[in-house]
Amino acid sequence: KEAQTQQKLANVVILATGGTIAGAGASAANSATYQAAKVGIDKLIAGVPELSQVANVRGEQVMQIASESITNENLLQLGRRVAELADSADVDGIVITHGTDTLEETAYFLNLVEKTDKPIIVVGSMRPGTAMSADGMLNLYNAVAVASSKEARGKGVLVTMNDEIQSGRDVSKMINIKTEAFKSAWGPLGMVVEGKSYWFRLPAKRHTMDSEFDIKNIKSLPDVEIAYSYGNVSDTAYKALAQSGAKAIIHAGTGNGSVSSRVVPSLQALRKDGVQIIRSSHVNAGGFVLRNAEQPDDKYDWVVAHDLNPQKARILAMVALTKTNDSKELQRMFWEY
Ligand SMILES: NC(=O)CC[C@H](N)C(=O)O
């Protein structure tokens, strides 16, 4: 009978990459001071025996790092492994455990390049497993529960943190000291409670099956850099980034991606030299950059990142540049994804 129940459960693979969910501190009081990326995936799975009630789970240690150090090469490696698993008939869903610092970037990257409707869930934690009131166990349980559910199919890459199901495209780490760290300006897609998912809305942007990008066709990612802006900003960083080979510079601008008059001429010159200038916003709760508002983008041939924050704009720009260097095409992609 036990074998029968096991057969009915979905097969979920957990790809572990590190982060606080695999972190360890010296004492249970250490909720914020600890080392990330210490505990292996087998131990993480063994720590949540309830996982076996929602899925047949197996783990793979893809890497063991803190996510602030994830490179483009790491992204491609992870993306390729996810695609292989998604193509396997005996895999129903994939969970990726990840540090929270760049979790939103990896989730958005996978959302753009994975050609599958199987659930892909990226999950992390804000406290290490050794801390009092650690949040990783429940976040992981929720991730596996969502990954094993049929309703999660075709909804793009998802993130389960703090009982919420978020779109990997929209979600961002908004605070680094609370367990309710991950928010989306447009709200969560649903909730996961005691292993059951409750859905409220669907992503409207192109993703996964409906995306024109495919990890299998991406050999490498071009260099795209971010320059943080403010009123008294100088053009030193913009120029240096271009000189070091950046194909596009994400302007992490104020407000509506606005650009200080101190650097407008330099950004125009960089565009003339072939560098794509992409206006984004570093507004905290989520920017909303509109074309030809604040700056004449048509005249300067600049692109706007719309609601993508600078780090997400960088991900889309890298993926988009593998296909085109036409600024009009890039702008179309920034509206559609
Ligand atoms: N909460 C976390 O996961 C942060 C730990 C670490 N900086 C990382 O992103 O991997």
The gist of it:
The chain is of the alpha/beta class and 337 residues long. It has helices spanning 2-8, 41-46, 51-54, 72-86, 103-113, 136-147, 236-243, 264-272, 297-300, 310-321, 327-336; strands spanning 10-18, 55-65, 93-97, 120-123, 158-161, 164-167, 172-173, 182-183, 190-193, 196-199, 224-228, 248-253, 276-281, 303-304.
Features:
337 residues, alpha/beta, 8-stranded mixed β-sheet, 4-stranded parallel β-sheet, 14 strands, 29% helix, globular, binds glutamine
Describe this structure in words.
- With 337 residues, this protein is α/β, with parallel strands linked by helices.
- It is built from eleven helices and 14 strands.
- Helix 5 (103-113) runs parallel beside helix 10 (310-321).
- Belongs to the asparaginase 1 family.
- The active site is at 20, 100.
Q: Structural class per helix/strand content?
A: alpha/beta
Largest sheet: 8 strands, mixed
Rg value: 20 Å
The fraction of residues assigned to DSSP E strands is 15-25%
Helix-strand sequence: HEHHEHEHEHEEEEEEEHEHEHEHH
Walk across the major sheet and give the strand order: 2-1-3-4-5-6-9-10
Fraction of residues in H or I helices: 25-40%
Spans of 5+ residues with little confidence (pLDDT < 50)? none
